[in-house]
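pls read this protein:
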Amino acid sequence: MLTNPVVVSIFVMSVLCLARLNVLLAILVSALVAGVVAGIGFEETIKVLISGMSGNLEIALSYILLGALASAIARTNLTPIFVHHIANFIQNRRLMFCLFIAFFACFSQNLIPVHIAFIPILIPPLLPLINRLKIDRRAVACALTFGLKAPYVSFSVGYGLLFHTILQKQLEQNGINVTLEQISSVMWIGGASMLAGLLLAIFIFYRKPREYQNTFLEENVLRHLENPKMSRQDFGVLLGAIVAFVVQILEGSLPLGGIAGLFVMIAFGAIKWDNIDNVIEDGFKMMAFIAFVMLIAAGYGSVLKETGAIESLAEAASSLSGGQLGGAIIMLLVGLLVTMGIGTSFGTLPIIATTYCPLALNLGFSYEAIILLVGIAGALGDAGSPASDSTLGPTSGLNADGQHNHIWDTCVPTFLVYNIPLIVGGIIGSMLL
């Protein structure tokens, strides 16, 4: 099992990322390693990688357009006005700020399902406030990842409905007929485990003050905080942002929403004709790297699937399971490994369910325990994966001034505070259900 292409590849990716090699290069090297170990060869691996990149084209385009919207907003007084009101609400309560961010981020999955779209718009303007309060950005990264992940794991609403529906269909296809109500009645254990991780991150691990350097964001935002006022340009940008949000909700297309928002801003003079190039270029600088990482991550996931090693890994793990306790541990760890590689919980469920369902039935797990094991095994690794939007999204906002490292300040903290509680919650819950 240790020579499995997925195990070798993800080990290489983890080592390279922790050694601070650029994450995009680390993923590319890991994809080539997976292909070579599986016997596919360099040439075929590159073909599969390039073909698979199309899986995240919409997400990449969305990132670029969101960057342009964020750039347009940053040029107005909306930024200092927003920070002014947040600062008055939070005052000097650093821990409350992190809890507020986690609470607000939860809306992006269920109530207003925009996923990571709010981060490049909301977080960069708040960096001066974070610096002033000396908040450890690792705590903010954990708060954002909690809001991006815990709601869809726990509740059948918004993205949670999509995740639970995929889980239900995969279980049914493998002989386990369950309802969405049954799934919701069990998966709250995953959300509760993540809540425990969030509280540990905010109140214990990352509660100490941390110093950051003052940057251009500090100057552009804080100089307006005393008496921020709305101008005609500000109203035009605000209208464009609202249109982008409404179109995205109604049409279900984030790129279409971004395009609509930008054209409304241009039409109402919020973005001057002569400044369009600068706005787009600034947005590209802000989000292009994240967009390309998402493209490469999709290709990497395709390479892992093409090797056929994921199925063989699950089968090998099942032969080592022993009793229920060993089976639960192995299923969760393999789920963690797979999701770390392909970077999406939604894509992991169909891969692991085929092997996990028969194994869990043979080990005598109840339907409720199987729901929990497969659901949490799919969710594991989304927090902490260098290729996941649950980590790339927070980094895109927190690193707007170049003072937040993707691996050590986002991936490592979120991996520790969420995956460990999820594994513990999954094991205990499956043994009791």
In short: The mean pLDDT is 80.
